[in-house]
Amino acid sequence: MASQNLYFVPLSQTDGLYSTFFQDEINLNDRLWLTIGSKFEHNAYTGFEYEPGASLAWTPTRRQTAWISAARAIRQPARFEVAIDASLGTVPLAPGLTETLVYLGNRHFQAEVLRDYEAGYRAQLTKDLSMDIALFGSFYRRLSTVEPLSPVPIANLSPPGLLFELMLGNKAHATNYGGEMSATWSVNRRWRISPGYSWIQMKPELDADSLNPFGGLSGGDAPKHMFQIRFLFNLSRNVEFDNTLYYVAHLPENNVPGNERLDTRIG
Predict the structure, then answer these.
(1) Residues 59-110: tens digit of each pLDDT
(2) What is the domain extent for residue 58?
(3) Which end of the chain is more exposed for a tag (fewer CB within 10 A), N or C?
């Protein structure tokens, strides 16, 4: 295959980005707080975008807080996704026929969108023990894909050939959900233990009209389970001795095995 030729169309340009943000915290009563806000922006690729968010926190007692939140976020396109033009090379397709493969950006590429919903609970169970629990559901749409265009004959080549163009599109979506929990226990005046665990399930899928030639999407590039536990010691007034043990589950995407790590710190 011939070497790749990659460039942008146009070769240079100046992009403008304008954004503003507001947030307000409203005390509905002595135990209920509402926080609302939004970011607004205008970028050179998708124009006007908005990213609102709201959360509601309830404190039934001085030692407990429960909360829920909802937010919308976007990832605006990069110039690579809009203006790239790359020739991936020419290869023989059949006797007397060649194939030229070209990778193109999409000037109509849209912003990827996330709608995220979360809920959590925080409690100071005793003077020495506290805990946090959070759950989330994340819904992505207009995710990036690679879509083939119809092949075009190239008559002025010798031997003749076909031009196959691959263009970026927004024809995938995903649903992610999971949770995390953590705690802190003050065993005594010098010793604290803080465990934590998180779990995530990722379900990316192609849209029904996607022709992505590279097959289905996989959620195996993020670990499903992660765990850590920290041991924090104050050996004296001026010396700290901390140890943290981490565990990360395997990654199915490339069959990467799970791993453990121990960090030790003296300060």
Answers:
(1) 999 999 999 999 999 999 999 899 998 888 877 777 777 888 888 999 999 9
(2) 5-219
(3) C
Q: Which residues of 200-217 are buried (b: 16+ CB within 10 A; e: fewer)?
A: bebebebeeebebeeeeb
CA–CA dist 108, 89 (Å, integer): 25
- Main-chain phi, psi angles of 80, to 5 degrees: -60, -40
Name, in order, each residue with C-beta under 8 angstroms of 72's C-beta and a sequence gap of 6 or more: 50, 51, 52, 53, 113, 114, 115, 116
- Report residue 238 as tokens: 């001026």
10 Å Cβ neighbour count for 65?
A: 18
What is the distance between the alpha carbons of residues 183 and 245, in angstroms, rounded to a whole number? 15
Return the structure tokens found at 181: 């929990």
**Is 30 a domain residue?**
yes
Residue 28 to residue 57: CA distance in whole angstroms: 10
For residue 95, being part of any structural domain is answered with yes
**Which backbone phi and psi does 10 adopt, to 5 degrees?**
-75, 170
Asked if 174 and 205 count as a contact pair (C-beta separation under 8 A), the reply is yes
The answer to the question of residue 266 being in a domain is no
- 234: β partners: 240
CATH number of the domain residue 130 falls in: 2.40.170.20
Residue 191 lies in a domain: yes
* 121-136: pLDDT as tens digits: 999 999 999 999 999 9
pTM of the model: 0.85
